[in-house]
Design brief:
Length: 515
Amino acid sequence: MSQLISQMISANLTDDLRNLGKLRHLTLKDTWLTSSLLSQALVNIIQSPLQTLSFLNCSFKEDSKGLEILSVPDLKLIVRNNKLRSLNTIIHYINLLFIHLETLDLSFNPIELPDHTKVIWPSHLKNLSLSGNLLGNHLFDHLSPHFVSLNLTHTDITSVNTDALQPMKDLKQLHMGSNAIRELPPDLMLPALEELHVDRNSISTFKLETFRGLPKLEKLNGANNPFVCDCNLYWFVRDFNKTLLVDWPAAYNCYSPTHLSGTLLKDFHPSQVACDPLSMFAICFTVVLLVLISCGIVFHFMDGAWYVQMLWIWLRVKQRSRNKDRSLESSTFNYHAFISYSVKDAQWVQSELAPHLEASHFQLCLHERDFVPGEWVIDNIINCVESSYKTVFVLSQSFVHSEWCNYELFFAQHRAIGVQRDSLVLILLEPIPPDSLSRKFLRLRSLLRQQTYLPWPQEEPKRQLFWASLTAMLRTGDKTVVADKSAVLQQVAGDIADLCHNETEYADHDQLLKD
């Protein structure tokens, strides 16, 4: 049973309160009260079963008797839409009159916070409503850690003070709707909170970290906020338990971007790849792995390791060129020629090539004889090529498949391009069709197509011309051995004349045998 009393309270009416055995809720609205009448009313309230006492838009004046100090039993006190200003004064009377009060509603009063003191709420007060009081963010500095339910709706709050809320270990209901809150902080820690109302604020997104500090949340009212529909809100749309939401989905709409304005959050479905870092990482990792595997396959079949080694050698050669600049005009050499050949062709070199050239007073550099023990093979190759006026390559199938021979060819051709253009001499020990060589031997293919080479003849009579041509090629341009070009020409002419003389003798000998 509830009773609404308006205008002025008479003493007889308050006397009747004790006789209303079923009265549970009493509201005094638009009423003029004096301290003596209020004291008498409180005396009768003590003797009644009243649970809720409300003062709505009442006027109060203290008369000569003053307000007697009484102990009012536990009840719910509503002092809404009055003209109460001093929060400290209100709490003072609560401590005097309502020593067991657990619920207090001070909504829509022009309450002002104290400037230099902190409000001390009674520890027995568990439920407080300050709705409609424009108190601002400083309100958080005057809260009690004993609150179980707190209504701060329409209090002009713009941000949430987590330091002030953290001591409220028993807080179960928090109403902060109709404010200007921009975000819920990620470090919000309210372990007992069951209801959170932040509707009609300026919140653009919900952060996952915020709800990790609310393990017992059973109801969330985030309706009518200007949500920004992007990847930051994607987790909320996809993973948040929608059964906890008040007014879902009708009151949850996209505010921006413009092309999504007005779209319900339940209809917002961004790309999972774009918004899920794990999916993005998995796809990027897979793509990178496939690219690396593809590059590895290409690298393997295109002899990439060999090209890398050649690049490294080339860099070493360039470095040596900076440290040791050698020009053709001012250089002297230790050898006439460096012989590059495969180990499988060593017998031919040692039995045919080397003896014949050294008999003609050529100084040859052979790797098994002239390489410096203990030095790296590449350094030995570079030193021998640089110390030799020319480089003779004995080409064969074995040469093509020799890794070290290809290093020698690479460095010698680099030297021919950079220092001495006619320093390469090619001897073709057996036929090697240029088109039969793989891409790895592109340099050798180019040489076989563009540069003159000496094929080793199988017929004995033709070998005299081979040796004459080879000797001439080794002596051409050798200013440290030959005085001038006429001597070279004379030597070549002599070799050819000897060859022709020998051919004539063979022919005369054959004719005598026939006769």
